[in-house]
Amino acid sequence: xxxxxxxxxxxxxxxxxxxxxxxxxxxxxxxxxxxxxxxxxxxxxxxxxxxxxxxxxxxxxxxxxxxxxxxxxxxxxxxxxxxxxxxxxxxxxxxxxxxxxxxxxxxxxxxxxxxxxxxxxxxxxxxxxxxxxxxxxxxxxxxxxxxxxxxxxxxxxxxxxxxxxxxxxxxxxxxxxxxxxxxxxxxxxxxxxxxxxxxxxxxxxxxxxxxxxxxxxxxxxxxxxxxxxxxxxxxxxxxxxxxxxxxxxxxxxxxxxxxxxxxxxxxxxxxxxxxxxxxxxxxxxxxxxxxxxxxxxxxxxxxxxxxxxxxxxxxxxxxx
Length: 320
Description:
This protein has 320 residues and is an alpha+beta fold. The chain contains 10 helices and 19 strands. It has helices spanning 30-36, 38-48, 61-72, 140-146, 149-158, 173-177, 182-191, 227-230, 239-247, 266-279; strands at 5-6, 20-22, 50-54, 94-95, 105-108, 117-127, 131-132, 137-139, 160-166, 195-199, 202-209, 212-214, 221-223, 254-258, 281-282, 290-294, 298-302, 305-306, 310-319. Strands 2-3-16-6-19-4 form a 6-stranded mixed sheet, covered by helices on one side.
């Protein structure tokens, strides 16, 4: 993350990022202020693709849930067909991905591997990390525009096939699908164009999805997939080669191929990750920050960090 651009308000130089909305002078509770400014807040997100609300008085995760439901105009969505470990709180508020603090979470659009995804996301910083721990962002339109043409065109033509093996190495299928019933898993897969195969109690799924999407409001093309996250090369260092050799590539916890089943090379994934790295920027978290995202226009991730860090998330406006 050495090339990550950290974006700040610099009042000394007169440069102020208009996407940071400093509301610390407001005397109302966070929820009361939001109720009086719903249209304004949504206009910020519609215009810029995201908005950082700073300085609101927020006292609990329940109040955060109410704030998001007020902004989004509907109840928050349950997080189904999961790809990472997290803890569910009340009212469909979740902890962000619970990977170890020394791990970096790569840029991604939430649920871009699925046929359903949230259009809106809201993050709430309860406790900022002692160091690091930002939630970096990247513009999905710029990712699409900056990819090498031969890679972009091939992905756009063939799409992506996501392969998952659920078990001890990755999430168990019971957690991913939020059920202990194989029948319910099969019904979900049938309803969502997911191929599945049982090997006794082990489950493998395959799902083919486009690599590129058009934003339903702006009509702009966005790079919208998680091939780089699922691909075997995303496993750190020598672990990837060891796992490929020891358990076989077909048994890796997750992997990504082109939609026709052909191999995506490590070099192609490296090129995609480099584009993300070049375009990524972040805002250092402050306590009580709320970050609102258009999930198709902007990706998010997580820096490694030290100390205690607690960031919550809620999602809404499911499309697909």
